[in-house]
TrEMBL record:
Residues 810-824 have a biased composition (Polar residues). This is Receptor-like serine/threonine-protein kinase. The chain crosses the membrane at residues 438-458. It is found in: Cell membrane. Residues 338-418 form the Apple domain. Residues 23-144 form the Bulb-type lectin domain. It comes from Cicer arietinum (Chickpea).
Length: 837
C-alpha cells in the first residue's frame, strides 16, 4: 500500500550507516534498541522508541511516513525511560520486557503462559503488535497482542469492553497532555449491566453516553450510524461484552481516540488532502453532555431552550432553569397511584440511562407494559431492541436521566404517569388504551369551542387591522416588482433605505398564526433539519407554506433579516418563491409559496403515485432542477450553494414543474455558527459528496454530486439510501455495475417503460454518473450539466468510479454533527456561500 516492501527497506536502511534499522519481525535472540524499529509488511505502521518534549522515552506504534507522528499505542506509558538507552527483549518465559540502561525491567507484557518455544514479535498492517510462535500460522492464536491493551486509540479490529469470565476490562484512556502519554483523566468504557452503552468519563464524572445499543446501533449517535454504515458492532453474551468500532468509510486508516482534552474523536485519513479529518466527535453539542437536562428532562438540540420536562413533569428549580442550569431536572406534577397509572408514549427519543434496567429479550411490548404496570417502582418501559419492528422488554425503576429528543432517529418509550397527567399536548399521546371514549368526546368539544373563539377573535382582529400589514396580495405584488427592478439595477442607490424596507415583506406573528390555525398539527406539512413546515392560507386566500425555524440559532434579528432579504431577491421559475419572513420574540419564520403537488419524494418513492410521472415529466423535472441549480451557482447575484439538495427539497407545482426549496437556509444558519468557529454540517447522508461528508469541505461540486444522486433516483424511482439490491452496496453502486455491464436501461422504473426515449434515458444516466464521480475535479459544473442534458449530439465523457459507494442502511439523518472548521478553502474551490455584496 505504501510503496516498497520491507525487504527493500531493510536493504535500503542497511546501506546507511548508523541510521535507524527497520525489520518486520524480532526473534527471541534479537533485541530492539532505540536505533531500530519494527515495520509492518506494507509499511503502514512502525514500532519503536520515541521521545516527547517532556524528555522521557517510550516504546510505541505510530503511522509510518504520515505527516505528524500519531502514536496509536504506547507500551510503557506510565513507566517511561529516562533516556534512549533501553532495550526490548523477548524473555525465555515468553514475556516481552523493556529494560532500562542499568538493565532493570521497566515494563513487561506480563504474559503468564510460559509454554512459548520459539516466540517472535511481529507488527501487522492493522497496527497490532503480536507475540506468537514463529511457526504458528493461525493468526488468531497469539501469545500476546497489543490490541488487547489499547492506550488512547482504538484502531479497526480493536475492541472495548469486558471478558465476563475473567472480569478483565479493555478500555481506552487518554494521555495526560499533548506530550505526556501517561494515563489521563478521560476514558471510554463499556457498561454492560443493563443494555450495552459506552460512557466517556472525565475526572470521575460521566461526560457523554453513546446511547443504549438498540440491537443495530447506539441510540444517541444517529449520525455515526450513517457514517460508519452500521459496521460498529456489539458482541454481548454470557462470556463477553465488547464493542468493535467500524472502519470509517471502509478505510483501514481510521481511528477512535479519547483526547486528553476530554472528548472522543473519530478520524479518517483523507487521501486527496493528505490530512486526518475528524468525522465525528463528542461531546459536541450541549445535548451530548450526560444528563444535560437532569432527571425527567429531555434534551433537544433544535429547541430553545434545549431542555424541557417530559409531559406530566414540571421544572424543579425554576431559578436555576432560567440560568440555563438544568441539572435539577423535573418533578412529577401528580404522584403515582401504582395500579391506576397510565403510560405516556414518546417517539424518537434516546433511551434514558440504562445502567441498571431490567431486560428480558423474549417478552413483547404488551407483556412488558403489564409487567411494568404491576411493579409500582417501574417508571418506564420500552422494546429492548428495534430489530424486527421492536423486540424484547426493558424496564426502568429509577429516575430517567439523559433522554434526548430526535426528529427522525430514536426509539419509542413509554413513561409512567398518573392517569390525570396523560393525554396532554403535542404529539405524545397516551398509550392506545388510555383515551377512553368520554375523554375523546370532551376533547372534541373543547377543540370545537376553542376553534369558534379563535375564529371570532381572528375576525375581529382582521377588521381592526384592516389592510395595514404586509400580508396582502397587492402589497406583495408591488414588492416583488420593486425587488425585480432592484435586481436588474442594483447600482441605483436613491432611496435605498425605503426600498430595502419594502423588499422584505415582514409578516406579523398573528397573521401567520391565524393562517396556520395556530400552527396546528393538522396544518403541519413536515419537519426538517431547520424546523417545522406548516401549510397556511392568508386572508386573501393565498396559500403559503411556513417554515418555523428552530430557535436554537442565536442569530440576531438584523442579520437574519439581511440574509432573508438577500435570499428573497433570488427568483427563478425553478426555485420556490420566498414571500417574506416573520420575526417576533423568539420566533423566526420564512414564508414561501405553497406547492400543490408537495415534494418530489412523496410522489417518486410512493408505489401508487410514481406512475403519475412518465418519462417526459421526469426529464422535465431533471432539467428544471438543473436549471434552478445553475441559477443558484452561477447566474444569481449571490453565489448560493444549496448544501442539502435531495428529493424532499424539490417541490412540484400544479403542472409538475420542479422548484428547489430550502436554498440559502444553510447560509442563514451558518452565519451565527461562525463566531463559535464550529460548523454545522448540513446535508443528508446518501446525497452528500464524500469530501463534504468526511471533511466538511463543500463547494458547488458537492451540490453537483447531490444532483447526480437525484437524477439517478428520478430515473430509477429508488432511493439511494436504504437501497437493497442483490449485492450492490447502494443505488450508485448498482447503477455503476449496470452501466459497466451495458445494461443501464434495466435501471428504469418499470412504471413508465413505454413512454421513454432510450437515448434521453441513457444520456441522463450518463450525466448522473458523471456528477457523482468520486473526485471533485472530475465532476462537471452546472452549465456543462445543463448543456449535456439538452444536447442530443454532444458526446458525453465516460464516467469514472462514483464516490461514496457505501453500504446499505444509510438512514436519512439531517445535519447534527458539529466539528471544527479547519479551513475554508480547498483546491481553490470557493467554500460556503460566497457573498456577492
Ligand atoms: C544499535 O546500538 C547498539 C548499542 O547502542 C549497537 O550494539 C547495535 O549494533 C546498534 N545496531 C545497529 C543496527 O546500528
Ligand atoms: C528527543 O530527544 C532528542 C535528544 O535526546 C532531542 O533532540 C529531540 O528534540 C527529542 N524529541 C522531542 C520530540 O522532544
Ligand atoms: C547510552 O549508553 C552509552 C554507552 O553505555 C553512553 O555512551 C551514552 O551516553 C548513553 N546515552 C545516554 C543518553 O545516557
Ligand atoms: C532503571 O530502573 C531502575 C528501577 O526502576 C532505577 O532504579 C534506575 O535508576 C533506572 N536507571 C536509569 C538509567 O534510568
Ligand atoms: C506486570 O505485573 C506486575 C506485577 O504483577 C505489575 O506491577 C505491573 O504493573 C504489570 N505490568 C503491566 C504492563 O501490566
Ligand atoms: C484492511 O485491513 C484488513 C485486515 O488487516 C485487510 O484484510 C485489508 O486488505 C485492508 N484493506 C485495505 C484497503 O488496505
Ligand atoms: C485458530 O485458533 C483459534 C483459537 O485457538 C481456533 O478457534 C481456530 O479454529 C484456529 N484456526 C485455524 C485455521 O487453525
Ligand atoms: C486533541 O485535541 C487537540 C486540540 O483539538 C488536537 O490538537 C490533538 O491533535 C488531539 N489529540 C489527539 C490524540 O487526537
Ligand atoms: C446548578 O444547580 C445545582 C443545584 O441547584 C447546583 O448544585 C450547581 O452548582 C449549579 N451549577 C452551576 C454551574 O451553577
Ligand atoms: C430495580 O431493578 C433492578 C433490576 O431488575 C433490581 O435489581 C433493583 O432491585 C430494582 N430496584 C428497585 C428499587 O426496585
Ligand atoms: C422472559 O420472559 C419470558 C416470557 O415472558 C419468560 O418465559 C422468561 O422466563 C423471562 N426470562 C427472564 C430471565 O425473566
Amino acid at each position: 500500500m505504501k510503496g516498497s516492501t520491507s525487504a527493500k527497506l531493510f536493504i535500503l536502511s542497511a546501506c546507511f550507516f548508523n541510521s535507524v534499522l527497520s525489520i518486520d519481525t524480532l526473534t527471541a535472540t534479537q533485541s530492539l534498541g532505540s536505533n531500530q524499529t519494527l515495520v509492518s509488511p506494507q509499511n503502514i505502521f512502525e514500532f519503536g522508541f520515541f521521545n516527547t518534549t517532556i524528555s522521557k522515552w517510550y516504546i510505541g506504534i505510530w503511522y509510518k511516513d504520515f505527516p505528524d507522528k500519531i502514536y496509536v499505542w504506547v507500551a510503557n506509558r506510565n513507566n517511561p525511560l529516562e533516556n534512549s538507552n533501553g532495550t526490548l527483549k523477548i524473555e525465555e518465559s515468553g514475556n516481552l520486557v523493556l529494560f532500562n540502561q542499568t538493565n532493570n525491567p521497566i515494563w513487561s507484557s506480563n504474559q503468564t503462559t510460559t509454554s512459548a518455544t520459539n516466540p517472535v514479535l511481529h507488527l501487522s498492517d492493522d497496527g497490532n503488535l503480536v507475540l506468537k510462535e514463529a511457526q504458528e500460522k493461525n493468526n488468531t492464536n497469539y501469545i500476546w497482542q497489543s490490541f488487547d491493551h489499547p492506550t488512547d486509540t482504538l484502531l479497526p479490529g480493536m475492541k472495548l469492553g469486558w471478558n465476563l469470565d475473567t472480569g478483565v476490562e479493555i478500555r481506552v484512556t487518554s494521555w495526560k497532555s499533548q506530550d505526556d502519554p501517561s494515563s489521563g483523566d478521560g476514558y471510554f468504557s463499556l457498561d454492560y449491566h443493563g443494555i450495552p452503552d459506552i460512557y466517556l468519563w472525565n475526572k470521575q464524572q460521566r461526560v457523554f453516553r453513546s446511547g443504549s445499543w438498540n440491537g443495530e446501533s447506539f441510540g444517541g449517535v444517529p449520525i455515526l450510524n450513517t457514517i460508519s454504515v452500521l459496521n460498529d458492532k456489539i458482541v454481548a453474551d454470557k462470556h463477553q461484552a465488547y464493542y468493535y468500532p467500524a472502519r470509517l468509510f471502509q478505510s483501514n486508516l481510521s481511528r477512535l481516540v479519547v483526547n486528553w482534552t476530554g472528548s472522543i474523536e473519530r478520524y479518517a485519513w483523507i487521501e486527496s488532502t493528505k490530512t486526518w479529518n475528524i468525522v465525528w466527535n463528542a461531546p459536541a453539542v450541549d445535548c451530548d453532555h450526560y444528563g444535560a437536562c437532569g432527571p425527567f428532562g429531555i434534551c433537544d438540540s433544535n429547541a430553545f431552550p434545549i431542555c424541557k420536562c417530559v409531559t406530566g413533569f414540571s421544572i424543579k428549580n425554576q431559578g436555576q432553569w432560567n440560568l440555563r442550569n438544568f441539572s435539577d431536572g423535573c418533578v412529577r406534577k401528580t404522584e403515582l397511584e401504582c395500579g391506576k397509572d397510565k403510560f405516556l408514549h414518546m417517539k424518537n427519543v434516546q433511551f434514558p440511562d440504562t445502567r441498571s434496567v431490567f431486560v428480558n429479550k423474549s417478552m413483547n411490548l404488551l407483556e412488558c407494559e403489564s409487567k411494568c404496570l404491576k411493579d409500582c417502582s417501574c417508571t418506564a418501559y420500552a422494546n429492548a431492541e428495534i430489530t424486527n419492528g421492536g423486540t424484547g422488554c426493558v424496564m426502568w425503576n429509577y429516575s430517567l436521566v439523559d433522554m434526548r429528543q430526535f426528529s427522525e432517529a430514536g426509539t419509542d418509550l413509554f413513561i409512567r404517569l398518573a392517569a390525570s397527567d396523560v393525554g396532554g399536548t403535542g404529539s405524545s399521546g397516551g398509550s392506545k388504551k388510555n383515551a377512553g371514549k368520554i375523554a375523546g368526546i370532551t376533547i372534541a368539544i373543547v377543540i370545537l369551542i376553542l376553534g369558534v373563539i379563535i375564529f371570532i377573535l381572528w375576525k375581529k382582529k382582521r377588521r381592526q387591522k384592516g389592510n395595514t400589514n404586509h400580508s396582502g396580495n397587492s402589497d406583495r405584488g408591488q414588492i416583488t416588482l420593486l425587488s425585480e427592478m432592484m435586481f436588474s439595477n442594483s447600482r441605483d442607490t436613491s432611496d435605498q433605505r425605503n426600498i430595502d424596507e419594502l423588499e422584505l415583506p415582514l409578516f406579523e406573528f398573528h397573521v401567520i398564526s391565524d393562517a396556520t390555525n395556530s400552527f396546528s398539527l393538522a396544518n403541519k406539512l413536515g419537519e426538517g433539519g431547520f424546523g417545522t413546515v406548516y401549510r397556511g392560507r392568508l386572508v386573501d386566500g393565498q396559500e403559503i407554506a411556513v417554515k418555523r425555524l428552530s430557535t436554537s440559532s442565536g442569530q440576531g434579528n438584523v442579520e437574519f433579516k439581511n440574509e432573508v432579504r438577500s435570499i428573497a431577491k433570488l427568483q427563478h421559475r425553478n426555485l420556490v418563491r420566498l414571500f417574506g419572513c416573520c420575526i417576533e420574540k423568539e420566533e423566526k419564520m420564512l414564508i414561501y409559496e405553497y406547492m400543490e403537488n408537495n415534494s418530489l419524494d412523496s410522489i417518486l418513492f410512493d408505489k401508487a403515485k410514481s406512475s403519475m410521472l412518465d418519462w417526459p415529466m421526469r426529464f422535465n423535472i431533471i432539467c428544471g432542477i438543473a436549471k434552478g441549480l445553475l441559477y443558484l451557482h452561477h447566474d444569481s447575484r449571490f453565489r448560493i450553494i444549496h448544501r442539502d439538495l435531495k428529493a424532499s427539497n424539490v417541490l412540484l407545482d400544479r403542472e409538475m414543474n420542479p422548484k428547489i426549496s430550502d436554498f440559502g437556509i444553510a447560509r442563514i444558519f451558518d452565519n451565527d455558527q461562525t463566531h463559535s468557529n464550529t460548523m454545522r454540517v448540513v446535508g443528508t447522508y446518501g446525497y452528500m459528496a464524500p469530501e463534504y461528508a468526511m471533511g466538511g469541505y463543500f463547494s458547488a461540486k458537492s451540490d453537483v454530486f447531490s444532483f447526480g444522486v437525484l437524477v439517478l433516483e428520478i430515473i430509477s424511482g429508488m432511493k439511494n439510501r436504504g437501497f437493497h439490491f442483490s449485492d450492490d452496496l447502494n443505488l450508485l453502486g448498482h447503477v455503476w455495475r449496470l452501466w459497466n455491464e451495458g445494461k443501464a436501461l434495466e435501471l428504469l422504473d418499470s412504471s413508465f417503460a413505454d413512454s421513454i426515449s432510450e437515448s434521453e434515458v441513457i444520456r441522463c444516466i450518463n450525466v448522473g454518473l458523471i456528477c457523482v464521480q468520486e473526485k471533485v475535479e472530475d465532476r462537471p459544473i452546472m452549465p456543462s450539466v445543463v448543456m449535456m442534458l439538452n444536447s442530443e449530439t454532444a458526446s458525453l465523457p465516460q464516467p469514472k468510479h462514483p464516490g461514496f459507494v457505501l453500504g446499505r442502511n444509510q438512514g436519512e439523518t439531517d445535519s447534527s454533527s458539529a466539528r471544527q472548521e479547519d479551513s475554508n478553502t480547498i483546491n481553490q474551490v470557493t467554500v460556503t456561500i460566497v457573498n456577492g455584496r
